[in-house]
Amino acid sequence: RVTVGDALFQIEPEQYQAVVDQRQADLAMAEANAENAVAQFNRGQELLKNKTIAQSQVDELKAKAAVARASIAQAKAALTAAELDLNYTLVTAPVAGRLGLARYTVGNLVGPDSGPLATIVSGDPIYVDFPLTQRQLLEAKRNLKARGTDASGVVVTLRLPDGSLYDQDGRINFVDVTTNTSTDSVTVRAEISNPDGILVDAQYVGVVLQAGEPESAIVVPQSALQLDQQGQFVLIVDAENKAQVRRVETGPAKGADIVVSSGLKEGELVITTGMQKVRPGQVVSATPPQALAPDGQATPGDAPATGASKQ
């Protein structure tokens, strides 16, 4: 790791040091000339009082003193420029972070077209960029508005390449103002602490977004949801193994599932496929979804069902 100002490379300072030495000598000479010019001017003023020198000569001495003082300022500016050039030969770390592999070694020729000498990654905190589709972004904005918060209230968790969850949570600090037309997505950036350096630059990670505290909810497969003139409903299997209509209200979708906000209890059996073959009141034999006939269709009297689960 490096901190701001740490020396990284030294690039041939000799010729620039020689220029600095020359500019220092020029400054000393300018100061000496100015001292002499000022002394001559002061002497001329004394002689003018005794009428032993003309006013024009005193004016000339005054101008020479002014030029000499200006020469000092010019010499100082030249020295400052030379010292800057010399300082540029010592490459220091502009930011704190982790230093990557140096691209050049001692004796290599480098110049303006050589490219970066090395890369420093300011790894703590680290920034994670990820895309959200327009649909995801709109859904997120609606959910956040309903919760009375904004993007800064979203907790960002990372899934590492080995499948584990990173132990530091982050926060969104930037949402781009333009859409990538080729992907119909918007770039979002999160800031995450990285004290142990587990995350590295350009690493691919999974992003899990969570707004507010987790809430339990009943979910069923979206395939189980049906719609008629009275609204949404599902077919459940009651205690007598009979199919019954259950009116439900739904919330947001979650992958292949959908949240049921009212109408179902945890553990109730919901028919997920073959609903067109089942009538309310019909006795059915609940079968797990994976236990279908080879052609993927339920056999007569079977109703593939899943328990309404709470997540």
Describe this structure in words.
- With 311 residues, the protein is of the alpha+beta class.
- Helices cover 27% and strands 29% of the residues.
- The protein folds into three domains: 10-92, Helix Hairpins, CATH 1.10.287; 126-211, Efflux pump adaptor protein, beta barrel domain (Elongation Factor Tu (Ef-tu), domain 3, Beta Barrel); 218-310, conserved putative lor/sdh protein from methanococcus maripaludis s2 fold (Beta Barrel), CATH 2.40.420.
- The longest helix is centred in the N-terminal third of the chain and has 36 residues, at 14-49.
- Residues 291-303 have low confidence and may be disordered.
Give the assembly state of these chains.
Answer: single chain
Tally of separate helices: 3
Q: Main β-sheet: number of strands, strand sense, barrel status?
A: 6 strands, mixed
Fraction in helix: 25-40%
Based on secondary structure, the structural category is alpha+beta
- Contiguous low-pLDDT stretches (5 residues minimum) are 291-303
What is the CATH class name of the largest domain?
Mainly Beta
